[in-house]
Predict the structure.
Amino acid sequence: MLRTIRVLTYSLWPILAIFFLMAPNRLFGHVGDTLTQTGPLPVLPNCTEMYVDISTACLAPCTSSDYYVKYCNFGDETALNASVSVSFDATFTINSASFPFTDQGNNVYLFHIGDVPAGDCGSFSININLDCGAEIGQAHCVDAQIFPQSTCTPTSPNWDGSDIGLAIECQGDSIYFTLTNTGTGDMNQPSQCIIIEDDLIVMVSGY
């Protein structure tokens, strides 16, 4: 991968999934000089860093559509016996999938993706039907989680021990968000929750 960087003031940090190199001025001779650097940043050591994303192009009542699931391991160790859990709201019915799955009940399906080597990515699709009673423009809840769940990010010495989790529930034409502190300590300062719909911020709320 090639990146051309202008001489300015930069900081250096790793960004998972997209690799950038940022360098300080002292590596260059004069303002306006450029440097071409080849190669990615190293992965974080001795851990698995799992990532999952689920998306679809469009949905319409009484019509089948495909959801696409992409997963990656950004760590440097193989994730053993990995799996992806996908939950749909009650308006969906699964027809088929390109990967084996187990019905866990309550519209939750477990996809067994097996061992995922370090730096490896994969994908699969899920074909669904949307209920004929669904309204056009109605919001639908779909959630994907990947296991094992671990992180390569070092714990900051300034962390207060709080860990805020988000639960989402669809009831009729409304979506309910529940924030829960599942950590080991209280929050030492307020924070914000931002809801984005169709690339637009629709709500900003403190908690």
In short: The radius of gyration is 21 Å.
